[in-house]
């Protein structure tokens, strides 16, 4: 295909620009490398260090519980031996006095157990009341988390509804410049004004050379007007295409922003839902504990009634001979008191064991919550930093490849003016999705991993 004469200089200029641009290597170091990778956030480092320090932190509590268990077992053994001695002394009193001492001792022991059962009923019922109050407080706190979750869900629905109207072939229209047609008309009017001046110059030259009204003048004016019409159409098409492209890009960016807001609203709703479930589980646990404590109090009340009835029967049998068995009974009661003290000491060691295990579990649960919170916040901040770095990287890549896009567009215009077919539009190799949305997905995945530590 031959090049029209009026395009020869322009094509040569384009070839020189293309040779200069494509012969120079692209400096890829401006948009590649580790400088575009977000490093570990300080909160993540703190969470990892805390997790490493917490491995095996329960060991001192376990050792203390084992030591208390061994001591308590020794005290129970001594209590058993002492109790055996008490039964032996009471047995001697019973043998000596016809079994009266044994009967009276059994009555005293039964009454003591009945008193202990009655004394424990009030404490157990009081504990049940406190557990019910705590359950009511937990259930009462669920409302605010439920309302927060509903508000977040409604906000996400509103955003999704608004974003639905920003799609389709007409989404770009609301972003078109209202002054575009005025700019185009003014530009074309100035272009036509300059064209008229050029035509007048040709006529003036024909008059000066004595060819006014001749065929040469007509040929020059025809060629000049044809070139001006082609250039005018290309100029008008370029301005229309540029306006449409800008409006389309603004519409796409607005839709992506709405998607980011929708994802954030959904995340807030998920957090409120988790808090609502946790409050509900806490209330159920407190309610179950209260029911268990009430059942225990009822069983202790029944046992106390049976023990008092048995004690009254035994006292009736031993009343006649109580004075004769007093000396043996005193000895047996002294030994029995020592056994009870030893049993109480063993029970105290048992409580200490339970407290040590409780402290161990509480420490690990609290540490796990701290690690999860620090790791999650660090992952979110790392994701935001990565989004900024990715945006900077895309901007640097776009700037590096921008000259090639202009040359490609210029070459397509020249090819169209010369009667050929325009090539494919240049595509920026660095174009991609939203950097913030991609980084937010990565940060959410990392936050979930921290939540499983000490779980």
Textual characterization of the structure:
By secondary structure, the protein is mainly α. It is built from nine helices and no strands. The radius of gyration is 47 Å and the shape is rod-shaped. The two termini are 74 Å apart.
N-to-C order of helices and strands: HHHHHHHHH
Shape: rod-shaped
Structural class: mainly alpha
Beta-strand fraction estimate:
under 5%
Number of helices: 9
DSSP strand tally: 0
Q: Which stretches are low in confidence, meaning pLDDT under 50 for 5 or more residues running?
A: none
Rg over CA atoms? 47 Å
Mean pLDDT over all positions? 81
Main sheet summary: none
- Which bin fits the share of residues in helices? over 70%
Beginning-to-end CA distance, first to last residue: 74 Å
Q: What's the topology here?
A:
Layout: H1 8-23, H2 42-54, H3 59-96, H4 100-140, H5 142-164, H6 180-209, H7 215-318, H8 326-417, H9 435-451
Helix pairs in contact: 1-8, 2-8, 3-4, 3-8, 4-7, 4-8, 5-7, 6-7, 8-9
Please supply descriptive tags for the structure shown above.
455 residues, mainly alpha, 9 helices, 82% helix
Summarize the structure.
With 455 residues, the chain is mainly α.
